[in-house]
């Protein structure tokens, strides 16, 4: 009987990805919060190395999406889609979900990674406090609008300890 590896605070994303190589090969993966030198970029690079069929990268900044795409090993990913998405705007979220539906009949893995933290009072375009509206409401709405999601990964931080 094979034992399940123990993952903890010191486990790297690469170690986890290696364990799930077969589960990622040929899958459709959507990652929010893509920008250079970020967790989003690290997720994209790590997952791309394990041959998903379709990698959908979402960010509110198209130039950041392009910068990360340039770093991806194109030989291992069959298809890469760059998706403009501002999680602080429900209109943007609905538009992104509409664009995804014809691209993918299902999402094997959705990684809700994008997040904002603001020390000053800011609001989403709908008047919701920015951090809550983006990090919670935005991802909830996106997730609820997407077709046939097999696995949802919600990324958080230790920011609450501050």
Automatic annotation (TrEMBL):
It comes from the Eukaryota. The keyword Transferase does not apply. Keywords: Oxidoreductase. The keyword Oxidoreductase applies. PANTHER family: PHOSPHATIDYLINOSITOL-GLYCAN BIOSYNTHESIS CLASS F PROTEIN, PHOSPHATIDYLINOSITOL-GLYCAN BIOSYNTHESIS CLASS F PROTEIN-RELATED. This is NAD(P)-binding protein. It comes from Zasmidium cellare.
């Amino acid at each position: 009987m094979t034992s399940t590896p123990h993952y903890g605070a010191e486990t790297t994303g690469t170690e986890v990805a290696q364990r799930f190589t077969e589960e990622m090969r040929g899958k459709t993966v959507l990652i929010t919060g893509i920008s250079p030198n970020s967790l989003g970029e690290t997720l994209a690079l790590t997952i791309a190395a394990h041959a998903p069929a379709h990698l959908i990268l979402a960010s509110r900044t198209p130039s950041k999406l392009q910068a990360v795409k340039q770093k991806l090993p194109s030989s291992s990913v069959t298809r890469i889609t760059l998706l403009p998405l501002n999680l602080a705007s429900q209109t943007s979220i609905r538009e992104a979900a509409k664009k995804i539906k014809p691209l993918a009949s299902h999402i094997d893995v959705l990684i809700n990674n994008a997040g904002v933290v603001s020390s000053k009072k800011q609001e989403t375009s709908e008047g919701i406090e920015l951090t809550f509206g983006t990090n919670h409401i935005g991802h909830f709405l996106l997730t609820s609008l997407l077709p046939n999601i097999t696995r949802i990964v919600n990324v958080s931080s230790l920011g609450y300890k501050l």
